[in-house]
User: Fold this.
Amino acid sequence: MLRRLRLVLIVALVLWFFSPPDLRDEIPIWLPFAAVLALEAQFVVSSWRSGAPLVSRDDPRPGMEDRHRYGDGRLPEWAITEDDEGTRHWVDITEDEEEAPAEPATAPPRRRRVARALVEAAAVVVAVAGLYLLLERPGWDDLGGDAQRSSEARMSLEASRVAGKPVRIECDTSGRHVGAVRHADGIAIVGGGLAYLTPELCYALERLAAHGEVTSFSQTARAIAVLAHEAWHLRGVANEGRTECFALQSGVRVARRLGLDEETARRMMRSQLVANQLHGAATAEYVVPADCVNRGALDLSPGVDRFP
Ligand SMILES: [Zn+2]
Assistant:
């Protein structure tokens, strides 16, 4: 029974993990985790207290407590005897010789039972704690208002340099403009003055600009590339392939200005170029054109023998 409950809870936890954000916001994050922890504690405590093993045994015969209460299912042997006064009595002639040997086989020692419950509970708790830490990773929302504003100002400054005019970058925490629904990391109106980035990318850029930290190579690279991509849209380039080609070249300078060394900056943008060509089939309009190569027509600095 408890085991089934544990399974149901873990399935519910996984479902919650993959549920839409709206639903997830309704249920506080600690609630499913607290429920799992309580259940595991219950597992250990009851296996400590209970005489009957809580975990299922290989032995299908009734446990100790049940046999004491209901007998052990064997036919009793009775006899009728007559005493000196002639009164008849039922006498049990099975004696209690068989009581002892059956016992050790059915109920494993309490120590082993509790140890097993503890190990199981520890395994579940470690798995759940790992999931919790994964979900609780700090993000854009955990930054204070000041940090968010100064980070947006910094991104806007970098985008303005690429766009060649003052533009604004905002982090779309509402999810209305970018994010999972739109399948876009960023969005900008061609020739406009405002672009949105997802909070994930904003956070990666904030970590880099304010703390010199690379959250992960691919995510930081993507964040820089998207910032430069939207900036090129704001500059007036509409074609997605050309925009991306220019963005990956400008991205090197953006990455340098945000604190990365030349080698890392180029490696990041090259990895984005490779990813662009690999994933091309799914999003054909985003694939960089064939002349997006060193000394090609789209090379922004043909004098430099590196690309990007
Ligand atoms: Zn675009």
In short: The radius of gyration is 34 Å. Residues 229, 233, 240, 243 surround zinc ion (CB under 6 Å). Residues 2-72+102-137 form one domain. Residues 44 and 117 are 5 Å apart (CA to CA).
